[in-house]
Amino acid sequence: MTTPQPVLAQLSESAIFLTLTINPGGEAAVLDLLPDLAGLVRSVAFPLPEERLTCVAGFGSQAWDGLFTGPRPAGLHPFQELTGSRHHAPATPGDVFLHIRATRQYPCFELARRVVNRLGDAVSVYDATPGFRYFDRRDLLGYVDGTENPTDAAAARAALIEDGPFAGGSFLIVQKYLHDLAKWTAMPVEERDRSVGRHLADDIEIPDARKAPDSHVSRTTIEDPDGTEHKILRDNMPFGSIARGEYGTYFCGYAADPAVTEKMLERMFVADPPDLLLDVSTAVTGSLFFVPPADFLGDPPVRQG
């Protein structure tokens, strides 16, 4: 396996999820940045080793075709919009995505600022969402997020392609969810537990015999008929704006095979009945990116002309 980007980096206290679109004629500036991206990260990180600053770069399907030549990741395609009986998962723009993580927010901000300044008019910022740790890894709904994340070798198997021309790469699906906290907090705790599939107080999963089939845990558990479970690596984070009254969760899911994440989303939005959590959480963005290995960024196969 070639060297992956820091997909498997330790969960952080802060992040910026930065989505860029490439303006007409901006491809050359993006390609010029890629070999220097690691140096930009070091320029911020080296004086601040305690911040554990990392950056993962991914590319959307259309951008990939406009930037690179040679083999194409087999699973890379535009995010598939989903419309169910009650809920909708939109597909939104995104050519380049940076997942920037650190202990505190200011190194994330500084790296994002330097990247955007370097690219200038070549790109537009579609979205820049700062994420933060909330209490003991809880989301703004009050539940611990990521309890069943795979670790160590299992995390690598879930998130990274093992062989082929893109070994060490990963598929990343991201979505912003806005929460109706007033509606959520008005619900009895028992009803909230039923929606999630876990107990609020102790983070213990409700046993299968008593778990609602349309709970969030049930809908996002992907198993083969023989019981083999397929996992992804999540690095979700809460975000919020008191001024705008927006509070939510930024979903960030890495997978060696995007079909696993897509199956989870299909079960959430299209199944009948859909995921109970969607009654209070509305998806407002959705994009799929391919995260190539680190050495790909160092010497990208540039499309000419």
From TrEMBL:
One molecular function GO term is:
peroxidase activity
Residues forming the Dyp-type peroxidase C-terminal domain are: 136-295
| Named cofactor requirement(s) | heme b
In this protein, which residues make up the domain named Dyp-type peroxidase N-terminal?
5-133
Source superkingdom: Bacteria
Instruction: List the residue ranges of the region (Disordered).
Output: 210-230
- Keyword list, A-Z: Iron, Metal-binding, Oxidoreductase, Peroxidase
Q: Which protein family is it in?
A: Belongs to the DyP-type peroxidase family.
- Family matches, as NCBIfam families: Dyp_perox_fam (TIGR01413)
Quote the PANTHER family the UniProt record gives: DEFERROCHELATASE/PEROXIDASE, DYP-TYPE PEROXIDASE FAMILY PROTEIN
The protein depicted here goes by the name Dyp-type peroxidase
Species assigned in the record: Amycolatopsis albidoflavus
Q: Source taxonomy lineage? A: Bacteria, Bacillati, Actinomycetota, Actinomycetes, Pseudonocardiales
